[in-house]
Design brief:
alpha+beta; 368 residues; 15 strands
Length: 368
């Protein structure tokens, strides 16, 4: 092992970020593996490898016990042979016998090579895992690499610190109706990073509500600075999202800040989400008021919380009932998710009829 070898390790650290100490440890393991392979799977633990960074050397030796006549050449050495190494040795001592790595056979050398290659792969996987695990619940930019026609999964290429990593956007995490093409650049939400047998798995999504949240944080400075806060999000990817916001500064309009001048801020987010509609709702600590806001764009006449504290009865104008409920119940469903409240929506005329019937029942009871 000469200076060129250590220079190569330093170059590896510079280009791939793999520490020299880590690779030296793997090289030492590789030498031990090669030695044992060259000696029919030797299992004894008297073989040592000592790297020296200052001297730029790696010394490998076997510690053998000095005996009259060596019966096991792998662990013992005769007194006469030992004195050739160190004239002062005596029976019972241990001497270091140098191992010439150049004499390793082809199979042993191949085994050593595999240990080193595996070490490089493990280190690279570890760096990828550390890089992306620190970015869980964040947005990453990715390029569509290819689309699997059989599974409809989309393989994306992500670049971080100059290193390319592939991730799979599964069909379940794709926005319904969104047509992505090879070479297209998109933003994805990192849901989770797992350690797998074949390297780290970066689980990404285009449907997660967190994607909308992060897009608003990127697009709206007031959210990034903490002046405006996102309280909750309800999303049905590809169709509609409702987002509730509030402000910690009375001088700031939280909805206006999110919409931006001439709708530029929310427009950029809608464009990134391929035209998905976004309702920006003003959050309120009063649940009934919050429910009324959440049913936007429908007008609400009244909203009353029921005794269970988890349900709300809402009355809307007759011509607003279908708008409040939404197509296939979507508006009401999203409002319920946003507020965490069960919502019972009724028309104004139905509410009047119920009130009239209640009055009639009361009068009948009084007559009885």
């Amino acid at each position: 092992m000469n200076a060129e070898f250590f220079a190569a390790l330093e170059q590896l650290e510079k280009e791939k970020g793999i520490p020299v100490d880590y690779m030296l440890d793997r090289v030492c393991q590789a030498l031990l593996t090669a030695y044992k392979k060259d000696n029919d799977g030797l299992k004894c633990d008297n073989v040592y490898v000592e790297p020296d960074m200052e001297e730029r050397t790696i010394h490998m030796y076997v510690s053998k016990e000095v005996v009259d006549e060596a019966e096991d050449p792998l662990t013992e050495i005769s007194l006469s042979d030992a004195k050739l190494i160190s004239p002062r040795v005596s029976l019972g001592d241990h001497v270091r016998v140098d191992v010439e790595t150049k004499k390793f056979g082809r199979i042993a050398a191949q085994a050593a090579k595999q240990v080193i290659i595996q070490g490089i792969r493990e280190s690279e996987r570890g760096m990828v895992y550390n890089e992306y695990s620190s970015r869980e619940h964040e947005i990453l930019s990715a390029v569509v690499s290819r689309i699997d026609p059989r599974t409809e999964n989309i393989i994306l290429e992500m670049v971080s610190d100059g290193e390319k990593t592939e991730a799979v956007l599964s069909r379940n995490e794709q926005v319904p109706g969104e047509n992505l093409t090879e070479g297209q650049r998109i933003k994805v939400f990192v849901v989770e990073v797992r350690k797998g047998t074949h390297g780290p798995q970066v689980l990404i999504s285009r449907t997660h509500p967190g994607l909308v949240k992060r897009l608003f944080e990127l697009e709206v400075p007031e959210i990034h600075d903490g002046i405006v806060e996102i309280k909750s999000i309800a999303r049905e990817a590809g169709n509609r999202t409702k987002i509730a916001v509030m402000t910690h500064d009375e001088k700031v309009d939280p909805i206006g800040a999110c919409v931006g001048p001439r709708g530029s801020r929310v427009g950029s987010i809608v464009s990134e989400l391929s035209g998905e509609k976004i309702d920006i709702i003003k959050y309120s600590e009063d649940t009934a008021t919050f429910v009324s806001e959440a049913l936007s764009p429908a007008d609400v006449i009244s909203a009353v919380m029921l005794p269970d504290g988890k349900s709300c009865r809402v009355t809307v104008p007759d011509d607003q009932l279908s708008l409040a409920i939404g197509k296939e119940g979507q508006n009401a469903r999203l409002a319920a998710k946003l507020t965490g409240c069960k919502i019972d929506i009724g028309s104004e005329s139905a509410a009047r009829q119920q009130a009239a019937e209640a009055d009639d029942d009361l009068i009948a009871d009084e007559e009885v």
